[in-house]
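Q: How do we represent a protein-ligand complex in a form that can be generated token by token?
A: Start from the inputs.
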Amino acid sequence: MFPYLPQEDAVSAPFWAATRERKLVIQYCSTCDQHQWYPRAICISCATENLTWREVSGKGTVDSWTTVHRAPTEGFVPPYVIARVLLSEKVIMLTRLVGIESPACDQAVELSWQELSDGRALPVFG
Ligand SMILES: [Zn+2]
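Then emit the structure tokens for the protein with zinc ion bound:
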């Protein structure tokens, strides 16, 4: 179980609601035909508000990674792997790798979930 409950706001609420059904959704801009992560009020490419939410495949590759050996605060149990995962939708997601101690760049990974105590979940990859 993840030790903390992430805060949600009006912009990120649809993402968190989808995690209750274990669906990974990210924003999609219908003006410039691009996905974006993390949730924002406007498109980072064209600055419009024409954003909708789309469920994504949950497939990606490791872009970069590091192993954390020292807990940043109480509740985290090192060692654990943090990675930039390039989703097949061409969006980078900063996440955690589970079940992979020594990842390699370009290694294929798939979505998994880390449960939160309130029914939501964090998207992780393995
Ligand atoms: Zn756009």
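The chain has one domain: 13-125. The longest strand covers residues 59-68.
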